[in-house]
Amino acid sequence: MSFTDLMTFQRETSALGQVAGRLGWDQETVMPRGAAPQRAEEMAAMASVLHGRRTDPRVGEWLAAIDDTTLDDVGRAQMRHIRRDYERTQRLPADLAAELARTRSQAHLAWAEARKAEDVPGFLPMLEKMVALKREEAQALADGGDLYDALLDDFEPGAKAADLQAMFDALRPRLVALRAACLDKPAPAGLSGNFDEFAQMKLARMLAKTFGYDMAQGRVDKAVHPFSSGSGLDVRITTRTDPADPFNCFYSTIHEVGHACYEQAIDEAYLLTPLGQGVSMGVHESQSRIYENQLGRSRAFTGWLFDQMRDAFGDFGIADADAFYATVNRLKNGFIRTEADEVQYNLHVMLRFDLERAMIAGDLAVADLEAAWNDRFAVDFGFAVDKPSNGCLQDVHWSEGLFGYFPTYSLGNVYAGCLNDAMRADLPDLDAALAQGDTGRATKWLGDKVQQHGGLFEPRDVITRACGAAPSEAPLLTYLEQKFGALYGL
Ligand code: ZN
Fold it and tell me: Fewer beta carbons within 10 angstroms: which end of the chain, N or C?
């Protein structure tokens, strides 16, 4: 009944979790199409093994028998993660967990079909069932507390909906105003031409290396949706190509590289333990977004990228590096969250946060979701949703039961704003390096301040320690207003 025994058990669980993740990576990249039915069974078997280990009564016995006060800081942090995870699984009745798993795959199918057919009513029965189950789950986990907080805690331990509400309340009016002011001005030129997809992948791999991604312990492949997967010594990313829009490929790559570098930079002593992965979705997203935006879309770095793109593709109709910077950061009216620019992205997120919070609270009937979505969209974005796949059917999250996930995207942006301020105060010459395509100082700063710690500290504490101040939305707002104010001559 020793801590060593518990950690041996945990390492094996983590290793199996990595194996399951790699099956998922394989499915999205190189798996032969005909293997799908067998793969579904393989993945279900892994999920059942992992569930069995997470709920194994021996973990409860170990947790009861081990005296935390005899452990060092790292040991206590490991115990905190293991205990939290175990207590969550204990609170959730087994039949509810099984029903949620079943509903997840049914709802996902129903959503995919409804989205293709633009058929909101076709999805509503499954969504209603999912919301009811998530409310039940939240009640089991919340222990009398706020239902939404209980779900949020799965993605962002310790975060509270009331704090997020205050953050969004501060962001919303200024982002709505900034958006309207920019779109009122003449739009910068867009890209034109056809961009060879092989050359895009070549440049994407170069960008991954430029941002410090270790190819000896990772790889870049193509997939329908960009993602990163794995921890420690095997962290893989995917990207996609569109001949008309190379930015999609390049900035998806840089984004996923931010996630992957976080996982690669975690202290090797934590390998295959609860501390050996990113601490929360919000902190994870702060790394992908600071790589993508504050570094990758900066004036300094885009100057270098402009030269690389001219070398790769020849003349593509953009006159110089200043015009290129404006093109990279161009605002456009759009319906889709994942395609939104830095100014509008968080408006998409807060719309979802408000609606999902209302559904979990029981204040918004699922039947009224589409109308509520469309009304809100018109208020913040100033034009009407034209079809459900551009509105309430665009995201996969709710069909998978991922309630409480959306706000971590904005939390990541807010954390990235804080980290950018602190990093630039520490590295006053950063832009000179970025203009040469040298991100090394920035990525080292993030590695030292954030990434190496893995799960050692609580999410908010990671940012507070790195920045020397508690997180706030103010740095992000100032950064956006200055950057886009200058770009659009406001
Ligand atoms: Zn991300």
Answer: N
User: From residue 129, how far is each of 114, 167, 184, 367 by CA, in Å?
Assistant: 16, 30, 43, 12
Active site residues: 256
Query: What mean pLDDT is reported for the chain?
Result: 97
Distance 488 CA to ligand 1 centre (A): 27
> Which are the contacts of 144, defined by CB distance < 8 A and separation ≥ 6?
none
- Residue 40: pLDDT band (50, 70, 90) is confident
User: Helices (DSSP H) in 143-211: which residue ranges?
Assistant: 147-152, 161-183, 197-210
Dist. CA 256 → ligand 1 center (Å): 6
Q: For residue 344, what are its two tokens?
A: 């509008």
> How close is the Cα of 167 to the center of ligand 1, in Å?
20
Residues near ligand 1 ion, CB 5 Å cutoff: 288
**Ligand 1 centroid – CA 250 distance (Å):** 14
- Measure 6 CA to ligand 1 centroid, in angstroms: 32
The pLDDT tens digits of the residues spanning 217-235 come to 999 999 999 999 999 999 9
pTM metric for this prediction: 0.97
Cα–Cα distance for residue pair 298/433, rounded to 1 Å: 12
Fold of 161-487: Neurolysin; domain 3 (1.10.1370)
Max alpha carbon distance in the chain (Å)?
69
